[in-house]
DNA sequence: GTTAAACATCGATGAATGTCAATATTTATA
DNA sequence: TATAAATATTGACATTCATCGATGTTTAAC
């Protein structure tokens, strides 16, 4: 699994409508979106984002997701390699939190131009 | 290929941080993101969005993308079924334009909460 | 040091996906 | 109606990917 390059909060490219997306930028953006385009991974992000302390223990995830521990571990790796989650190990437990700005960096290029307001 | 349900501009779900994403909403959101998570499809969206008249002819796409006509047609179908593009046939040609609000409906649930500003 | 618990990695497998060549379909024109 | 052009569909193939069981690794407690 090749980690995605991730400079926090820096979008890979300009908004789609501004100029035609180049091949490399398209590849980069698609790679990030692929990391998000899975139900289990979206739910993991949501569980982390909605958690009281902004972080969640791996041990809390398999049950609500209905997935085995190895599968959850795999999804966490994908999200971490893509730069959306940060891992901290405390004792035997591993805790994950959102990397600030990482989600916004992906959605920014997808933002539509503001509509012209009729007079 | 099963078309994605699409009521324009209506996001499938609340922001991720607001409440844990349910299984069905996660499936819906993931399906939309999967439609976007491909370099060729992102470039198609960008070519349409950046075009002067807001629409583009299928015939203009294979060359800049370096893909065959059937492959381009396949990607256009994926984007149309997912509700991101609208197709209009004029004569022998087919024209595509963005469905307003469709992209925003996908990115809205991914928006991060605003940071608390320190005093 | 042994044991137990939490997590990561490995290997396998079935399903989904991107791509193309070949073919079908639709529309305009002669 | 016959021909040509643009697009869609079909079928095939190679690749990617989500998932799991089995196993390895790390840490704490005894």
Produce a short descriptive summary:
Chain A has about 120 residues and is of the alpha+beta class. Helices cover about 40% and strands about 15% of the residues of chain A.
Tell me what the structure shows:
The structure is a homodimer of 119-residue chains. With 119 residues, chain A is α+β, with helices and mostly antiparallel strands. Chain A has a domain at 39-110: Winged helix-like DNA-binding domain superfamily/Winged helix DNA-binding domain (Arc Repressor Mutant, subunit A). Helices cover 40% and strands 13% of the residues of chain A. The first copy, chain A, contains five helices and three strands, in the order ααβααββα. A three-stranded antiparallel β-sheet of chain A has the order 1-3-2. In chain A, a hairpin with a 2-residue loop joins strand 2 (85-90) and strand 3 (93-98). Mean pLDDT of chain A is 92; it is low at 1-7. Chains A and B meet through helix 1, helix 2 and helix 5 of A and helix 1, helix 2 and helix 5 of B.
Tell me the name of the CATH homologous superfamily of the domain at 39-110 in chain A.
Winged helix-like DNA-binding domain superfamily/Winged helix DNA-binding domain
Number of contiguous helices of chain A: 5
Quaternary structure = homodimer
Low-pLDDT segments of chain A: 1-7
Annotation keywords:
homodimer; 119 residues; alpha+beta; Arc Repressor Mutant, subunit A; 5 helices; 3 strands; 40% helix; 13% strand; disordered N terminus; DNA-binding
How is the topology of this model organized?
The structure is a homodimer of 119-residue chains.
Chain A lengths: L22 H14 L2 H11 L5 E3 L4 H4 L3 H13 L3 E6 L2 E6 L3 H6 L12
Antiparallel strand pairs in A: 1-3, 2-3
Chain B binds a DNA duplex (30 and 30 nucleotides) through helix 4.
